[in-house]
Amino acid sequence: MSNNTEEINQLIKLFSKLPGLGGKSAKRIVLKLINNKEGLVKPLANNLLQIYKNVVRCNICGNIKSLNSKCSCSSKKQNQICVVENIADMWVIESTGLFQGYYHILGGTIASNGKSDGQNLLINSLVERIKKNSISEVILATSATVEGQTTAFYIANLLKDFNIKITKLAQGISVGMSIEFADDGSLFSAFKNRNSIATD
């Protein structure tokens, strides 16, 4: 887009940073917004401001919640925890109805090159949740990538002395695939045939 409006250029750059959006898509979105200021720009701006002010990440389970409300992880009693890398993964699994227990969102993975040891992930919080709740099974639903599997085995090793079942998703999730992009059939197969993890 050739224009002299710095605000528009900055908005295009911001939209271009969003997943799945390139420069052309960002320009089309910005044009749509400009042509509908009252119907789109104003409510969008207000909504984004409210999200910025009031939506936070739960420091217990990693899910998002309103600032002044309790997280869903504190309102139900379950005996299973499904550990995922990010919120998008949780949403995908939730949409299938395959799992009804707790979720635990790590917020990323441990790097396979050893440069990240998981200190920024909610792994310690996971351990505390297991200690405080009557958990019988931890399902490690990390992606079938090197980083995802590195993270799964790190957590499994950390939990090996707990008297709980530790499983990981089975076949159905192709090597290198992220949970977020798996179809319902693949997730169904992966959950149904999940395997225990050997830590020795």
Secondary structure: elements and pairs:
Layout: H1 6-16, H2 23-34, H3 37-54, E1 55-57, E2 64-66, E3 80-84, H4 87-96, E4 102-105, H5 123-132, E5 137-140, H6 146-158, E6 165-168, H7 184-192, E7 195-196
Helix pairs in contact: 1-2
Structure notes:
With 200 residues, the protein is of the alpha/beta class. It has 7 helices and 7 strands, in the order αααβββαβαβαβαβ. Helices cover 42% and strands 12% of the residues. The mean pLDDT is 84. It has helices at 6-16, 23-34, 37-54, 87-96, 123-132, 146-158, 184-192, and strands at 55-57, 64-66, 80-84, 102-105, 137-140, 165-168, 195-196. The longest helix has 18 residues, at 37-54. The protein starts with 5 loop residues before the first helix and ends with a strand.
Please describe the structure with a list of short key phrases separated by commas or semicolons.
five-stranded mixed beta sheet; elongated; Helicase, Ruva Protein, domain 3; 7 strands; 200 residues; 42% helix; Dna Topoisomerase Vi A Subunit, Chain: A, domain 2
Quick rundown:
With 200 residues, the protein is α/β, with parallel strands linked by helices. Helices cover 42% and strands 12% of the residues.
What is the alpha-carbon Rg in Å? 20 Å
Could you tell me how far the N terminus lies from the C terminus, measured between alpha carbons in angstroms? Answer: 58 Å
Number of structural units classed as domains: 2
Order of SSEs? HHHEEEHEHEHEHE
How many β-strands, per DSSP?
Answer: 7
Mean pLDDT: 84
| Uncertain residue ranges | none
Overall shape? elongated
> What is the highest CATH level, the class of the largest domain?
Alpha Beta
Characterize the largest beta sheet: strand count, sense, and whether it forms a barrel: 5 strands, mixed
Report the structural category: alpha/beta
Number of helices: 7
Helix content: 40-55%
CATH domain topology of the largest domain: Dna Topoisomerase Vi A Subunit, Chain: A, domain 2
**β-sheet strand percentage:** 5-15%
The side-by-side strand order for the widest beta sheet comes to: 4-3-5-6-7
What is the CATH architecture term of the largest domain? 3-Layer(aba) Sandwich
